[in-house]
């Protein structure tokens, strides 16, 4: 993890090896990677607000990180930025919460897939495929479970120092998969 910054700033990372034009036979979806260092929970929430300006109905956001990494804090900022109703809290025990928009924008569907062991089949009961076209769907612990919902998706990986530490710094890696995310670097700059 790099030294803390006074404010999070986008840093470009080379495209993954093998990224090709998505229309070519056997092509890997295009990917854009942006890495940020976030020094506090307030900055994580601010990152969520900034990211909300980029989101649109139909977007799938997958959050990955250890317990306490800041997934729900980031989602709280997304909710603020999207102007949704209700306090954004961890949906661990209810699995999913829907936060309707107060500003004629998309609803925020916040899912915690931690306790769900199956893939998309188990997620079908949540009707995420029905909600996705008119909502922003954020899935914590969604890797290996919801990728089939959308070819275009945003993976957010949050790394933090582990062990007995008070270090609040996080390295946040945003991986925009698919043509939808081609302008991610510029949008967050």
Strand line-up of the largest beta sheet? 1-2-8-7-3-6-5-4
What's the helix count? 5
CA-CA gap between termini: 21 Å
Percent helix, as a range, is 10-25%
Please state the average pLDDT score: 79
Low-confidence stretches: 1-26
Describe the main β-sheet briefly.
Answer: 8 strands, mixed
Helix- and strand-based class? alpha/beta
Give me a quick take on this structure:
The protein has 189 residues and is of the alpha/beta class.
Topology:
Layout: E1 11-12, E2 31-38, H1 41-52, E3 60-65, H2 71-82, E4 96-99, E5 107-112, H3 120-123, H4 128-131, E6 135-140, E7 153-160, E8 170-177, H5 184-188
Parallel strand pairs: 3-6, 3-7, 5-6
Antiparallel strand pairs: 1-2, 2-8, 4-5, 7-8
Helix pairs in contact: 1-2
Explained architecture:
The longest helix is centred in the first third of the chain and has 12 residues, at 41-52. With 189 residues, the protein is an alpha/beta fold. It has an eight-stranded mixed sheet with strand order 1-2-8-7-3-6-5-4. Helix 1 (41-52) packs across helix 2. The chain is built from five helices and eight strands, in the order ββαβαββααβββα. Residues 1-26 have low confidence and may be disordered. The protein is globular.
Structure characteristics:
disordered N terminus; about 25% strand; about 190 residues; eight-stranded mixed beta sheet; 5 helices
